[in-house]
Amino acid sequence: xxxxxxxxxxxxxxxxxxxxxxxxxxxxxxxxxxxxxxxxxxxxxxxxxxxxxxxxxxxxxxxxxxxxxxxxxxxxxxxxxxxxxxxxxxxxxxxxxxxxxxxxxxxxxxxxxxxxx
Length: 117
What we know:
Elements: E1 5-15, E2 19-20, E3 23-24, H1 25-35, E4 41-45, E5 48-49, E6 57-58, E7 68-75, H2 77-90, E8 95-103
Antiparallel strand pairs: 1-7, 1-8, 2-3, 4-7, 5-6
Helix pairs in contact: 1-2
């Protein structure tokens, strides 16, 4: 599959300590993306940030930091629309943002897939 042209970028922002059914939320989101055959998802860990609570989240040496996490997903409007209902259930506190993007090149490698964990 080759994806070029107009697409959607979905960014999900939340805290590192957030969970979904006992596992890290970022891991659950990536697994849901894979299950729905989304083109790809990448998890980023932030150094520092804050959101609606206005509490600053940053790394601490002796305690949990709940650092900011962002999952970025780029795919077609149709595939992003299929993912949104699942995210609505999974993300209790956070921000979900969708924007228009222009994909220059994305080539899906047929037959290459890592085993599910």
